[in-house]
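hey team, just a heads up i'm posting the complex here instead of the shared drive bc the drive is being weird again. everything in one block, sequence lines first with there labels, then the predicted structure for the whole assembly after. its two chains so it's a bit long, scroll down
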Amino acid sequence: QQRIEIHKLRDGDNLILGFSIGGGIDQDPSQNPFSEDKTDKGIYVTRVSKGGPAEVAGLRMGDKIMQVNGWDMTMVTHDQARKKLTKKNEDVVRLLVTRKSLENAVRQSMMQH
Amino acid sequence: MDTESAYSGYSYYSGRSRGSHRHGERSRDRHKSRSKESSRSEKSVTINAPPAEPLLGDQSVRGEEVQDDNWGETTTAVTGTSEHSLSQEDIVRISKDLDDSVGLDCKRYLNVALSVILGLVVFLTPLAFLILPHLLWPDRLRACGTACEGLFISVAFKLLILLLAVWALFFRPPRAGLPRIFVFRALLATLVLLFVLSYWLFYGVRILDSQDEDYQGIVQYAVSLVDALLFIHYLAIVLLELRQLQPFFSLCVTRSTDGATQHYNLGQLSIQRAAVVILENYYKDFPVHNPALLTASKSRAAKHLAGLKVYNVDGPGENNAAAGIAQSQSRAMIAAAARRRDSSHNELYYEEAEHERRVRKRRARLVVAVEEAFTHIRRMQEEEQKKAPGDVMDPREAAQAIFPSMARALQKYLRTTRQQHLHSMESIQQHLAFSITNNMTPKAFLESYLTTGPTLQYGKDRWLARQWTLISEASVTSGLKDGTVFLLKCIDFSLVVTTKKIPYIQLAEEFIDPKSHKFMLRLQSETSV
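-- predicted structure starts here --
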């Protein structure tokens, strides 16, 4: 698991982060290309725009977002997740993400013990 | 029912005279006073206080409850007085002082006679137009050519059609006796009379006096008369039958004793015609009026004020102050009654619960008894009849055979639901025989006893069809308007009727393009943040 801190970029009136999310408890999890477990309804990063704040901060496509600023993202709807990420009064979002390679590493280390 | 008032131009052998022979009963004093009242009051308020006559249904019911095994005949609330407040045009103003019933009979027969005379005059006029020239100046008359003779056929058939049409429209037995003239009929009769008179006038002056030789012209004149009569008949259909078909008003009818309410949609009618329609529907829609069910609330109301007595401590007051004292006394009573802590609501609740339980228990016993009785009856098929000829009974005997086994349960149930005066033993046996004949199940047989049906279901003496008074502020021949209120009073209850206009409905249209019925399945949405 990795903690990533993204500083929002001001573009006119909006604050953008530079990535797209998919998933949520109201969405269809079987169509998620990034999840290993096809019943996983978590929030995944589906696209990272080049040179945006997210890429700079180290976010990669396929990451699963576990927390945003302390808010849990594993059991939220798509819209709730979007709202938590696009709060207007926050300039910085701190994400807790999981990556597949990271997951395998964690699992392997657990199996060793 | 009573005669339809006034002249109708086309009633020849009236259902009217048929109808008038049917009415055996004539008026007595009570009726006479009512007729004067209603004919005098065109605009005055005639809301009467509840009648001073005793509630006959009530007393006789109480009498029956005392005697245990009394299955006696249904108590009749009809006292033998019939009441028709007929008032017809000028005739009524002349004969308002006629005291004996013979006067009213004359009125009706006069009515019929006038209509018949008018009808005959109208019918024979075209024929007279055609025949008179032949009688008066046959030698000078030009011979009738082919076209003219063709017109004879036309006249004959048109008269035949007119005859049939009038028979269809006006020859029906009257369904009700209205208190005032039927305005449209009177207008039509007057119109026809004027019309025919003007034709006669023209004929007399231009043709008879001058002894016109052109017979074809005369025949055409007669044809035009018959055509115009057919058009007047069309007008009659539209005014009398078609105009009120389109619903325009919604009438709310409430019974004053127990609040049973129904709504009816009617077209534009006069108040008296609307009253007739409502009464016809009353007999099939409203549950029968059962005075025995009303005693409970009356006794509660009596108990409420019963315990209070007012004593006048200050000695006899002066006459001027008497009214003031009476008023203050009644106010004091009401105030004291309101303050008194009474638990009548509690009593009501428990009493009703207990009654409900009792009714259900008796009903269960009744249903079981009837089912057992019905299983004893088996329908004989044709082939099997030969097997046991001695056992075959007709439905009446079968009913009498099984009646005793359920009589007691039925009697108890009817007494608990206070219906025992509505059904006589004879009627129950008849109904039982009827059910057996038509292969009904016990449930079907019991249906008429478990639920109170409409008034028509019970005997004729419950109908009280001749005892209705129409009480209204507006003239009864005026049309219905939004907010009209009138009363239909029977002997011990009345129907309160209020009118409301049916709202004008404005429909808007919304077009849905069939091409817009396209859907996208968004199960995996992606949002950029």
